[in-house]
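Progress narrative, Year 2. Work on HupK protein from Paraburkholderia dinghuensis advanced from sequence curation to structure prediction during this period.
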Amino acid sequence: MTLLQVPVLTLTLRGDAECVHTVASQWSPLPVERLLTGRGAAEVPALLSTTLVLCRHAQCAASAHALAAALEAPSPDAADPEPIELEAARETLRRWLIDFPAVFGGAWAKDEIAQWARLDSRAHIADFCEQHVFGMSAAAWLTRPEFDLANWAASAGTLPARWLHGLLERAERPVSVMPANVLRNVHENAETVLLARDADVTATSGSGWPAHADLWDAPGRGPDLASALLTSRLQHLARLCANRASRVTGGLRRGDIGIGWAYCARGLLVHLARVEDGRIAAYRIVPPTRWNLGRTSLLPDALRGLRWSAAQPLAQRLALLLDPCAPYRIEVDRHA
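Result:
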């Protein structure tokens, strides 16, 4: 079976001649769920591993938990989280090495880029990040108080530190962040989420829906959304390097619906499954994109009212920070 092409996320900025008024996003899910419906539950792991491109280890783990919960079978808790954590760290660094310099500035040395292929263990990733990301061990970086991040960004000299320094210097719109409680929301609305599997994943609306894919686990404030997001990404990478990540996979059940989850480079990924007579009756993959760039996300508030000269480059930065693994395009609808 051939791999399915990753869909392109489209952000549309609409406004008058002066500034942005509204922000809309569109990112339709891959038709994987339709391939699974009617199949035997035992066939799902092989199908997913050959059809999904992004976050394959996380996808397979979330699916295993969802199916176990749906079948009321023992949870696969004994599964090694290491491949999922390494996948998240490697994917984060790959995007930072390839995509981020064009948007955030600067350039990696050729030998730094070449090292990515050899980052095949937590130790190798931690060593790379100590040299080229944090300028110190990840464990030491995590002990720094958050209010000291500006000093680190100004003095560390690494390219990610310079990115954060540049964002902090440009920050003009402070933002409050809160935990999103994605799992609680999905659990409470499992039937609705499961049966909406063919909808545009960013079309979910309503004040009760999560504003992001659990990118923050505590309330806080940031100078602006871009700097808050990069700080969150740095913290997540540091925890992975220092082996301090929280539990990365799990499962739960709502009625006859199994729910499985895993943390990937983009945030919390969720799978939902209903199994009848050993076959998939309904299946839904909820990507982090659904929350990170949905109608209730933090993105519209960050861009609304900005002049076009500021809004378009900021939209590029936010798209990469919110969903670093998905290709995207930005469209402008400007009228007099």
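Residues 82-98 form the longest helix (17 residues). Residues 38-293 form one domain.
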